[in-house]
UniProtKB/TrEMBL annotation:
Residues of the SnoaL-like domain: 10-137
Matches recorded under CDD domains: NTF2_like (cd00531)
Top-level lineage group: Bacteria
Region called Disordered, residue ranges: 156-176
Designated name of the protein: Nuclear transport factor 2 family protein
Length: 176
């Protein structure tokens, strides 16, 4: 394969992998389970020490229960570095992640807010024309837990505010 052809192949692979990384955040924040499962190949693994270690599907089941107990959550990805294997069907990546989780506080006067910063170190493969995770390891770099008085945190969102389901306004834009 010519050098230009290899470069284009690798750029297309990097873009496809980046889309899957972003899809993961969208899937969790919109509580779209099928979309979350699409991030891993069948049998792919997820290692989020010390909270979870197992399959990608098992992780989705675990995180669903945890997220259902929250009032809101938001995941952002930055600094995505990807290296494509020489064969063009394997890759590794590191992505920085910031997660904000809000839930009930110890009593009705406050809410609990957890902010974590870490990285996803992923191994990828291209199977049947689809890039997905074979193995993910979450590395926790920092975490902050705070209590916020309810009067500073509570608000009634407008009708078009973000939602944790497929009624979120973004689904109207992304539907075919």
């Amino acid at each position: 394969m010519a050098e230009l052809d290899l470069a284009v192949r690798d750029l297309l692979a990097k873009q496809a992998i980046t889309e899957v990384v972003y899809t993961y955040c969208r899937a969790l924040d919109r509580m779209d389970r099928d979309l979350a499962l699409s991030v891993w190949h069948p049998g792919g693994t997820a290692d989020y020490p010390p909270m979870f270690s197992g399959t990608g599907e098992g992780f989705v089941d675990w995180v669903w229960k945890a997220h259902e107990a929250l009032t809101s959550h938001s995941h952002q990805i930055t600094n995505i570095l990807i290296r494509i294997g020489a064969d063009g069907t394997s890759a590794v990546s590191e992505s920085y992640v910031t997660v904000l989780l809000r839930g009930p506080g110890a009593d009705d006067s406050a809410i609990s807010e957890i902010t974590t910063r870490g990285r996803y170190v992923d191994r990828w493969s291209l199977r049947d024309g689809r890039w997905a995770v074979d193995a993910r390891r979450h590395i926790l770099d920092a975490q902050t837990v705070q209590t916020i008085p309810r009067e500073l945190a509570d608000f009634v969102p407008p009708e078009d505010a973000g939602r944790r389901d497929t009624d979120d306004p973004s689904y109207a834009v992304f539907r075919p």
